[in-house]
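Key idea: predict the complex, not the pieces.
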Amino acid sequence: MSKILMKGNEAIGEGAIRAGCRHFFGYPITPQSELPHYLAKRMPEIGGVFLQAESEVSAINMVYGAAGAGMRVMTSSSSPGLSLMQEGISYLVGAELPCVIVNIMRGGPGLGNIAPAQSDYFQSTKGGGHGDYKLITLAPESVQEIIDLMAKAFDLGDQYRTPVMLLGDGILGQMMEPVELGEIQEVKQAAKPWAATGMRGRGKPNIINSLYIDPEDCENINKKLFAKYAQIAAKEQMWEEYQLEGAEIVLTAYGTAARICKSAVDKARAKGIKAGLIRPITLWPFPGSVIARAAETAKCFLTVEMSMGQMVEDVRLAVNGTCPVYFYGRTGGVVPLVSDVLAEIEKLVDGGDRE
Amino acid sequence: MLEEILIAGFGGQGVLSTGQLLANAGMIEDKHVAWIPSYGPEMRGGTANCGVTISDEPISSPLVTEPTTLIVMTRPALEKFEKAVVPGGRILINSSLVEQDVKRDDVTVLKIPANQIAEEIGNPRVANSVILGALIKLTGIVTIESVVESLKKVLPPRRHNMIPANREALERGAQLAEELG
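Result:
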């Protein structure tokens, strides 16, 4: 099958449909509006539901309803919209409902701007709503990887009965790249015996709820969630290693920042500097194991983000003092230049006495 | 081969679609391509630009911050992006719309009266194809055939009657680049 040129936002929509998603609820916001736009056209063609809610708060609660009925369902927004959804996400976690939530990040805090950013890392990975929880967070770097990860996102959600976040930035959403869509496959979805789809002869109704009035019941639910998280952390870490062989300066970056770092690594290598990159694809579970391994032989780490430094905290936890971890970032919608990252790498050549 | 092209002008001039056409043509030739639009809070008449990267190798950073070629359709676009072009790069100016000169002397400048040529062809809407033709001649990044092939995909069927005029515009642009170059 030949390649077609597609926007990242459109690829999320097409990828979701191919993963068997037939329900989308959302509210427009730049820079992700091409996604609802695309699904508004595509969903009716395949007998799916596209509904523009009156707000992000409504959209996430519609997701709760559809997920509770066992449907593959998705919503999407950009940073301020995700802040509005946090209560609903916490409820989805509490009720153990699978769904996919897309955040195409923009500059913040506040209304910020519509330019690309990566400053919602904490919000996505550390539980942006109330309560003890984690979100599986997938961070593609290209339009093709979006297509490849969408089915994974829905599968992980169903397998572990948990919401899954797909985290990108404005560049990833707006950019066009060639994609290979492949044949449309029959989607095998796991049975959902817990879904509220009617009694169907069963003696006991399925109840979808996140209210645990007895503190001990609530503690037990937390323990159950964390047993699940331990399993996810052990089994589901994904990352890419780029020029890591013999790397003395190890960059860590995800999404668009990782694309920029790859260029910087290429230029550093051309100058004889042994630089490499670890690109987390799952931001949670964070691929700490590979980072700890690389820290045994690296002279230092350099984390690059389109934020004031969020993922760098997880890198430092994984490196655990074995070698210095430095940070370079631009934020508020400003994107780091390849030449800036290269300059940071060059400062570290003698082992990291940067300051 | 790695070409990083920045196309800049006003919204409504076809800046974004010209870039898409180029990216599509690169894809047809099995090259690696990326297209990134500026997407500020802008509208028709506001500034618009897009970056197109075409490469034989996988593209690491898809952002075009230091273009090898800059195509300008408006005076503000020239003022804003002139400095960004790599030394030894090219600036293609639609001289039907932009009168002033490039201040740098370390880049190749090509002035193309694209709207005038489009008028001569009898279709003012093919001006961007004139510039694209010149770009293709100068860089060899794609062939005119691939652009024509892309037009068949990018244009809705009811606009396919525009393809012969576009082909002529591409050829006129290439011819002009050869004469000026």
